[in-house]
Specification:
This protein has 458 residues and is an alpha/beta fold. It has 2 domains: 269 residues, Ribonuclease Z/Hydroxyacylglutathione hydrolase-like (Metallo-beta-lactamase, Chain A); 174 residues, Rossmann fold (3-Layer(aba) Sandwich). It has 13 helices and 22 strands. The strands form 4 sheets. It has a 7-stranded mixed β-sheet.
């Protein structure tokens, strides 16, 4: 009987860089291939050689399009992987946007660093370029929900709805003797746009995320958001919302539409300043127009993103103008943790003014600008210079796309039987350990917080 081995090459004791290797009978499948974000030590790992020989891989399967699950694919392709990269059709459409945008931003940041001279490297270079991204995009291969695919000799993959973002999936890898299930990032059962995650399948091991593994989402803070935004806008300030381009922007727009429609927040221009976010909106709208959407809730009153004051910053000049807005407005810009992109320029322009407000719309990884802002930093570094933070800052869980601790445990409880082991990943150390302890105590399962580089029998 051949053993199925599982090795954790990322997202173990941290909430970024998802990458898991499954070995069985000489065949190798990589589950997710994410970029590390956050502290300098984590980001340096992006430059390390591949943890697995790319040429030795039979397949890659991705759970969803977010950068911490797909952002290293161009490096993998550039260093010798030429096989298929499987994901749901919507995941692949969004992944194309993510990888092209990531390559463009890295090229842009390297060029800007060279021009301004703030990099410690003589010739700053991007982690990967647009040509590398296109190589990876050419390898994307659709795998619809509930369709079993032999992704390697003796190993079949099945994707099921995860409810995290459009196209997100849990990943079941099954051999003739064993099966392992990867939760990917699990969504909230009450996601405003997406249907809930499907229950776990009948497997021998479960790898589960723990982003919110040590806490539950409290009551809605939208009233608090409305009060803070109203105060800011009525006093002539502007509101900056760093938001992931995919799903987070859609949720923020849905909430703003409701708040402005019922008068809870003044009606002002709402700018989406992210080319990728604008393109992702089109993907979401197209999915909603499909005859029988497989993962979306019914939309009762038309386009949920249709704000009469919605504007898209399509040019560099429009984006630069938002660094010092001429009138009160709301600016939604990527990235969600302010690690890069146009939002860094907006922070440099808006954070020093006490009239403005910065809204952090989800989990912030330690070491990111978003984390620093959430924890009261008096200054942040942007493009080589420190700028003071005098603007108001609030952080909300309302827009998080992750299941909280109770919801994670409730999802696991739906498993048809007890697995041999439950491996807890994609969480900071305390979060992962807290969830593992709960699973052990409440479900009486063997549950452990996985360690980076650890190899175990699945």
């Amino acid at each position: 009987m051949s053993t199925v081995w599982l090795t954790f090459h990322g997202a173990a004791q941290t909430v970024t860089g998802s990458c898991f290797l499954v070995d069985h009978d000489g065949r190798r499948v990589l589950v997710d291939c994410g970029l590390f974000q956050g502290s300098r030590d984590l980001r340096r790992r992006n430059w390390a050689p591949p943890p697995v020989s790319p040429a030795s891989l039979d397949a890659v399967v991705i759970s969803h399009a977010h950068l911490d699950h797909t952002g290293w694919l161009p490096r993998l392709a550039a260093t010798g992987y030429h096989g298929p990269i499987y994901g749901t059709p919507h995941t692949l459409r969004l992944t194309e946007l993510v990888l092209r945008d990531a390559a463009h931003l890295q090229e842009e940041d390297a060029e800007y660093a060279a021009e301004k001279g703030y990099s410690k490297h003589r010739n700053p270079r991007p982690l990967y370029d647009s040509a590398d991204a296109e190589k990876a995009i050419a390898q994307l291969t659709p795998l619809p929900y509930h369709t079993q695919m032999m992704v390697a000799d003796g190993m079949a993959a099945t994707l099921r709805r995860a409810g995290h973002i459009l196209g997100s999936a849990t990943i079941e890898l099954r051999t003739s003797t064993d099966a392992v299930l990867f939760s990917g990032d699990l969504g909230r059962p009450d996601h405003p746009l997406l249907l809930p995650p499907e229950p776990p399948s009948d497997v021998d091991a479960i790898v589960v995320e723990s982003t919110y593994g040590d806490r539950n989402r409290g009551p809605s803070n939208l009233a608090r958001l409305a009060d803070a935004m109203t105060h800011t806008l009525q006093h002539g300030g502007s509101v900056l919302i760093p938001a992931f381009a995919i799903d987070r922007t859609e949720l923020v727009l849905t909430a703003l539409r409701s708040l402005m429609h019922d008068g809870s927040v003044p009606t002002v221009p709402v700018w989406v300043d992210s080319p990728m976010a604008a393109a992702a909106l089109d993907v979401y709208r197209a999915a909603m127009a499909e005859p029988h959407p497989s993962e979306l809730r019914p939309v009762p009153d038309g386009d949920p993103f249709d704000l009469t004051t919605l504007r898209v910053a399509r040019t560099v000049e429009e984006s630069k103008g938002l660094n010092t807005p001429m009138q009160p407005c709301v600016i939604i810009s990527a990235s969600g943790m302010a690690t890069g992109g146009r939002v860094v320029h907006h922070l440099a322009g808006l954070a020093p003014d006490p009239l403005n407000l910065i809204v952090l719309a989800g989990f912030q990884v330690p070491g990111t600008r978003g984390w620093d802002l959430q924890h009261g930093a008096g200054a942040i570094k942007a493009h080589g210079s420190y700028v003071p933070v005098r603007a108001g800052v609030i952080a909300l869980d309302d827009f998080s796309c992750h299941a909280d601790a109770d919801q994670l445990v409730a999802w696991l409880k739906q498993a048809p039987r007890e697995p041999r082991a439950c491996y807890v990943v994609h969480g900071e150390p305390e979060s992962a350990q807290t969830l593992a302890t709960r699973v052990h105590q409440e479900l009486a399962w063997c549950a452990v917080a996985a360690r980076d580089g650890e190899k175990v029998v699945a």
